[in-house]
Each structure stands twice: as structure tokens, then as C-alpha cells.
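Per your request, structure below.
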């Protein structure tokens, strides 16, 4: 079975983007970590990144069909700033019935007020916040039965 790891807007800039918040690992490093975690648990990992809300929504719908068909365990998603704005992503996760772990590299609750609200959390299976890129490894483990 498979787990889909989705990184949202600006996460292609990992490594150089605000390293005091997000660390020095690049997106490629994160995706390598995810592949290693998948290998350890015997699950296939697919990693995708997009800066476009509609593309992320289409991927959630696709994951919903894969889960329903029994091919996928669920989704690990860092929705980036869409976390704090996107009712459309909330609706997509609910509508597609996807088991989804919401993940943030930084501790959003220790940052600006506008990062304290998540539209994703009420639709998520669980949430991992502030544990750095190690959070991806923990989120993958959480989806393995
Ligand atoms: C983030 C936190 C968000 O508030 C921010 O917009 C991001 C990254 C994180 O991983 O800590 O893009 O999701």
C-alpha cells in the first residue's frame, strides 16, 4: 500500500527559506527522509509538491479514490499557508474521506496570530506541529496500521 506526501505552497523553497523557522533541509532531503521511513514500514511513498490550491485539491480527490480502492493508506500533508485560508481544502479532505495527517515543520502556535487558526485541522485524522522535518517520519508512522 501507498502513502501520498503532499507539500503545499513555498515548500519547494525549503533549505533557503527562513532557515531559523524551517531548518536547512531541502525539499529533496525531506522527500528522501520520507522514502526511508516508507522503506522501514514496507509502504510505498509518493511525494508531490505544488504551489497551486486547485492542484492540491485535485490530488486530495485522487487520493480519496485510491483509498476507496484499497491502494492507499492516507495522505501526509503540509498545506503551508493554505492551512490558514483554505475552506476549499477543508471541504476536499472531508468530501474525499481521506485519512490525512496535517503537518507543520514549525510550531505555528508559537508564531504570528494568523498562523494559530487551521482550516485543515477539523478535517484531519491528526496533527503534527513544530517537530521539524522529523514530523514527516512520525506522520508516515502514524498512518501505518
Ligand atoms: C508551515 C507553517 C505555515 O504557517 C507556513 O505558511 C508554511 C509552512 C510549516 O511547515 O511550519 O508555509 O506549514
Amino acid at each position: 500500500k501507498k502513502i501520498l506526501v503532499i507539500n503545499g505552497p513555498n515548500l519547494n523553497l525549503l533549505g533557503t527559506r527562513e532557515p531559523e523557522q524551517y531548518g536547512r533541509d531541502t525539499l529533496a532531503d525531506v522527500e528522501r527522509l520520507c522514502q526511508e521511513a516508507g522503506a522501514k514500514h514496507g509502504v510505498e511513498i509518493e511525494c508531490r509538491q505544488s504551489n497551486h490550491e486547485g492542484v492540491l485539491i485535485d490530488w486530495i480527490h485522487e487520493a480519496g479514490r485510491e483509498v476507496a480502492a484499497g491502494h492507499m493508506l492516507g495522505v501526509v500533508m503540509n498545506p503551508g499557508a493554505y492551512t490558514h485560508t483554505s475552506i476549499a481544502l477543508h471541504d476536499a479532505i472531508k468530501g474525499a474521506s481521506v485519512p490525512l495527517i496535517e503537518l507543520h515543520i514549525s510550531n505555528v502556535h508559537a508564531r504570528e496570530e494568523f498562523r494559530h487558526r487551521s482550516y485543515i485541522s477539523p478535517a484531519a485524522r491528526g496533527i503534527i506541529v513544530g517537530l521539524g522535518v522529523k514530523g514527516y517520519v512520525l506522520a508516515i508512522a502514524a498512518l501505518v496500521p
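The mean pLDDT is 97.

Regards,
D.
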